[in-house]
Amino acid sequence: MEKDSELAQQLQEQLNRQDVGFAVKPITTCPHIPTNISSKVFIDTPCQECNELKENWQCLSCSTILCSRYVHGHMLDHFLNTKDHSVCLSYSDLSVWCFICKKYVINKGLEQVKHAAYVAKFGEEPPITSNIVIQQDDNNNNASASGSSSSK
Ligand SMILES: [Zn+2]
Ligand SMILES: [Zn+2]
Ligand SMILES: [Zn+2]
């Protein structure tokens, strides 16, 4: 019985975690993802335009650090000025946003820099490194995660 409640708690935590950065359903393919993304991150670097430290984004095309639209929108300016630097990484929730697709992006090519950002931000490895699951749709009846095969 204790096991069940433990499992339920774990599932709840996972659900909570998924809720955080992905209010909008992310896409898995974005043609604007740069081919050579540097996995260098600059978590403590302020916005290069206004020196703001919170809510910053990293341009994945040129690694410029700029603030979000909730601050002064310098990352949006950067995209409008460059026209093609559209994919950027949020230091707030480590999500990747594409200004052209106007969607969050989850893609294998982004995992390395996201991982680096996580380590730089929290000072430790992500809790579930093997859980990089890219789901294309919701019709995935994946209820097999209940390891209750201890019927001995
Ligand atoms: Zn895109
Ligand atoms: Zn700024
Ligand atoms: Zn850029």
TrEMBL record:
<dbReference type="InterPro" id="IPR013083">
    <property type="entry name" value="Znf_RING/FYVE/PHD"/>
</dbReference>
<protein>
    <recommendedName>
        <fullName>UBP-type domain-containing protein</fullName>
    </recommendedName>
</protein>
<keyword id="KW-0863">Zinc-finger</keyword>
<dbReference type="GO" id="GO:0008270">
    <property type="term" value="F:zinc ion binding"/>
</dbReference>
<keyword id="KW-0479">Metal-binding</keyword>
<keyword id="KW-0862">Zinc</keyword>
<dbReference type="Pfam" id="PF02148">
    <property type="entry name" value="zf-UBP"/>
</dbReference>
<feature type="domain" description="UBP-type">
    <location>
        <begin position="28"/>
        <end position="124"/>
    </location>
</feature>
<dbReference type="InterPro" id="IPR001607">
    <property type="entry name" value="Znf_UBP"/>
</dbReference>
